[in-house]
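Lay summary

Proteins are chains of building blocks that fold into shapes. Our project writes down both the chain and a compact code for its shape. Here are two examples, one after the other.
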Amino acid sequence: NFNATTANPRAVVTAGILSQSNSKDDQAILTAANMAPGDTETGTLDLGNTGDLPASMSVSTAPPVDTPASTAFSSYLRLEVDDLGSPTCTTGCPAPVAIFRGPLAQAAGTSDLRVLQPGEKRRYRFKVTYPDGGGDGADNEYGGARTTVGITWTARQ
């Protein structure tokens, strides 16, 4: 009798890792204090896929909180959110991609973004404009008004 045997080592199965980086984690993307009619403020953040799986990204904006509530400053402020592409791009970069344009109050909800591959980063710009309503105190009702909004970034596989 002849016998022959071979062996295979144990098969190993591991789960991938889904994680992200946020250059402004637990910080405001922008803070605009003492804005006057006609002013614009911007803020940026870099969002990256630090895991080893592709990640479907989305951004969720909570309903704004206006103080005083009766003034609804968030309905008057204009918000623009753009995907600026790779933060390392310095020349020949693609044009920004608009994610949202409109009154800040209408930004509440979720917007799907692009899929980020492992190691990929994107820069996002938030721009808030306080429109100038014209002369003769047209913007007086917003004097001292304040609005805040929370933003959550989600990675899904």
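And here is the second example, written the same way.
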Amino acid sequence: MDCGCKKKYHFFISLLTFIIFFLSYNIYYAEKPIEGNYENGEKLFKKHCTACHSINLNQELIGPALAGVTKSRNINWLKKWIKDNKSLIKSGDKDAIAIYEKYNKIEMSAFTQLSNQDINDIIFFIEKNSSSSSYSTSTSSTSNQRTNNEINKNLINDNFIRVLTIELFILIIIIFFIFLRIRTIYYLINVSKEPKKNVIKKIYTYFLKRNAYFFKRNAYFFGYVSICIIILLSLYFILNFSMNIDVNKGYQPIQPIHFSHKIHTGINKIDCKYCHSSSQYGKVAGIPSVNLCMNCHNTITEYNGNYIAKNKNKEFYTKEIQKIYKAIGWNPKTREYYDNIEPIQWIRIHNMPDFVYFDHSQHVIIAEEIIKKHKSVDIVCKACHGEVEKMDEIFMANDFTMKWCISCHRTIEIVNNTYNINYFKELINKQIQNKKPNVSSIGGLDCGKCHY
């Protein structure tokens, strides 16, 4: 009898432990952010998806607008749909059939040639642009604004929920353990014919007597285990939080003037280096002075373009131009300057810490072609700052962490210039032979390269 109970006891403990672990694993990882390669996702989206879906994710074309699709659809379902939507429709999936019928039964191309990682990168690209609206021309800057406090608050909430989830399931395991002990006691004592009140009292008394010595004997063990678990979870929480301090990807403050890079760089094709000229020959890209703005707005006093963002109109853009005149003290009617000026208080977005040395000229001029090739961009600025020509207002498109910078130095080849030919002949020769030594081979990972 006892032997059978012990076997059942061990079986139930093993089974419940497996079930709880399985459930906790799925719950813990179900809400984790999608991870993928943004650049590869962007490249694949443009290559395979833009024939039917707008790069402006809020706009419908042949297919639906994709903004927010990662919130409204299960990720695993999306992967199946992209991979082979025809099979999903034939399987009788209600969501797949509904989409198929809604869009006039036009079949979406199957992308069986794409790997799971490729599809994950595409979904990652869609999610990031849905949240940051880097390709969206219809979202106001107010709704897109993310401050440092909001970012850190979200990180704290996410980590708190994860730690709480783990602790909750540990508690469930303990409760099940106690329940099974009570169940075992129920079978050990002969209480089948007694009244319910006596049964509960007898079980309670027997449980305390039988287990008091066990818990007393192992009190230190349970105490140490609990303390270790709490310490490990706390360390995980602190480390994860610390690693994300001042990582402000998506940061988009409201600027004093609604300067649209989409209008200036995208539509009017103004070269980035025209306004940020110091990026070619100096450490910082610099903020252009109002005098530079007046080179054009000396004559362009009102907005007459065809592009109008959502919730905006031509009068809005014209008023923003007038702010330039107030800043420099210019009367566009009399075409004279006056003394009362109001300097523009731009809010800096990309700001490296004082202990980091980053030289724009090294990347924009010396390594321009090789960065463009490696990042698959037509303008070198996009490698770090994203699709600037499609942004109504600038936001931080990348992490700008040390890890993010090092990942480039580990993969980008050495620039084949005069300096490197003279000082790193062997490495250049290897590169010519397609062995491709990277920037880390010439000190690109040395601490003193960026911190001195």
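What can we say about the second shape? Residues 27-31, 132-156 have pLDDT under 50 and may be disordered.
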